[in-house]
Amino acid sequence: MKIYVGIDMAKDKFDYCAMDDSLNILCRGSNRENRNERFKELSDLIGTLKSTSTMMKIGMESTGIYHIPLYNHLRTYGFPIRILNGLEVRGMKKSRVRKTTNDTIDAESIARYLMIREEKDTFVVPENFMNLRETITAYSVITDKIRTTKNNLIRAMDMIFPGLSNIIEISADTVDMLSTYMTPEDFISADRKEIEKYVSRRRYDRIMKIASDSPANHHLERSLRMEISSLIRILKVMMEEKEKLEKAMRSDPVIENHVIMSIPGIGPVTGSVILGKICDINRFENAEKLVAFVGMDPVIKESGKQRSQRSISKRGDSSLRSAIYQSTLAAVRGNPVISEFYRRKVDGGMPKKKALVAASRKQCHIIWSVWHNNRPFEIPERFRKQE
Fold this sequence. Notes:
The chain is built from 16 helices and seven strands. By secondary structure, it is an alpha/beta fold. It has three domains: 2-116, Nucleotidyltransferase, domain 5 (2-Layer Sandwich); 131-250, Helix Hairpins (Orthogonal Bundle), CATH 1.10.287; 259-386, no CATH class. A hairpin with a 4-residue loop joins strand 2 (14-20) and strand 3. The protein is globular. The N and C termini lie far apart (68 Å).
């Protein structure tokens, strides 16, 4: 008898369902606590079921971090666990005739999915990559918070000094300036040399021009000054933390002398994200599998004789996709292979943004080839002759 065990994890609980190959439910249950005692009860139950089966599959849906403790517990007892992508299981959950759903039903859907799923080994993050991956997660969190804080700061700037945010970018230098100079009157009355410590002469002239024409907002000035000062203090702290995380990523042993660091456009930060998110290039049989994992693959819609290509799927990890895109932007300027590919697409009439996405797919192919063959990137001879 073949047995399939589906486990649905949540932050504070987990549900399970075991069925045989005739779709008979052998047992199901719900545990309201994610504790070792409850994990042990489940592992004992699975051990009993395994003794009566000829083959057993156990699967759980990836839920960020919440599945990890139970996953590690079951692995300790020697049970092979398959971690399933939520996109994989979603179709099975939606296939039910009745729309009613709960965690117990989800566990059953996972068990059913295991019956039809193609046999694949579950990828386990190598131990030497774990610290890098956690640093990347912290980096993504702080980067998102900085982006949100900058947007809130721009909103306040647009109220107290309309047009200023169109001239200056929010950076370590400009936040120092904004902590002192906020209103049009502040800039007009300031010494020119003081302002030019933070911006160029040309930008100074533009600031003065809009300051002289800017409407006053005195009735909100006090609260806006408080808001801007508060946001700047928060932003400075987060920028400092971001620098610390970037330093940790640069010094991580994984990226030191790694072969993909030879690819033009890939720096310590983007390289850390790429390495930390992929971990093992042998997970992908070819470069197209990597493209799909990143979410850079085009969405094709075909109906009858009509066939259209829409935007990219964006099904992969957004931080990995962003890192490859950023490395491509740098590669357009520094890698003749990517540069020629990009120019050829643009010259052929492709919009620049679409050409950058196409170049990002090309970058994925280069990453796969260099990493898979464990050979540093070399600029082809035909490009070296042009130099």
